[in-house]
Amino acid sequence: MKIAQYVNMADVISSTGPVSPSTPGGEAPAYELIELLFFAYRDFVREADAVLIRYGFGRAHHRVLHFVSRNPGLKVAELLTILKITKQSLGRVLRELVEQGFIDAQEGEHDRRQRLLRVTARGDRLARELAELQTRRIETALAAAGPAARETATRFLAAMIDAGEREAVQHLVTQADRP
User: Fold this and answer.
1) How many separate domains does the chain show?
2) Which of 52, 81, 83, 175 has the CA that lies 20 to 30 A from 74?
3) Would you say residue 174 has pLDDT above 80?
4) Residue 41 sits in a domain of what CATH number?
């Protein structure tokens, strides 16, 4: 049995244990789907990466900006849970976004130790630009995949999430009071 190799702290936090060399039942790994996911993700982030580079940002900045823009008043602790990273990993990225005027961090109303995060007008513009780029790619792919593609893709992606987290993720992505 192989032991998982970790690339960064997000891998350590989200790891479920040793990696087996084959799938249950002994069938061959799903190489075609694995590789399609790798290539799809590569192209899904490419245009956003090009925009982020203009600001000296990377994908970690994008993830933070996305979830803060979608969840105004998000607590740092909640963001850590969503991203499954350590406070130390978030620190530099969040500090840069705050210092450059993309995110505002304020003390909590009832607990001054809490930091509540909101995007600024500048952060909202960048988050929307990135989301629009990625939405165009998604819509193009869904149109090419056929009439039921959105529902099928939604079910597939939801099923890829660890079973114990699906409900929380579903709640997060479907909140009605989001901007």
Assistant:
1) 1
2) 52
3) yes
4) 1.10.10.10
Place of tokens 């409900």: 167
- Which residue type does 177 have? D
Q: How far is CA 77 from the centre of its chain?
A: 16
Task: Read off the amino acid at residue 123.
Answer: G
| Residue 4 belongs to some domain of the structure | no
Tell me which residue of 129, 157, 134, 138 sits closest to 69, measured CA to CA: 129
What tens digit of pLDDT does each residue of 42-75 get?
A: 999 999 999 999 999 999 999 999 999 999 999 9
Q: What is the pTM of this model?
A: 0.81
Structural domain including 86 reads 31-173
7 located within any domain: no
Q: What is the pLDDT of residues 8-28, one digit of tens each?
A: 555 445 555 555 555 667 789
Burial of 13 (0-12, 13-18, 19+ CB in 10 A): middle
Over residues 80-100, the mean pLDDT reads 95
Q: What is the DSSP string of the chain?
A: -BPPP-SSHHHHHH--SPBPSS-GGGPPP-HHHHHHHHHHHHHHHHHHHHHHHHTT--HHHHHHHHHHHHSTTEEHHHHHHHHT--HHHHHHHHHHHHHTTSEEEEE-SS-TT-EEEEE-HHHHHHHHHHHHHHHHHHHHHHHHH-TTHHHHHHHHHHHHS-GGGHHHHHHHHT-TT--
Residue 2 covered by a domain: no
- The predicted structure's pLDDT at residue 179: 60
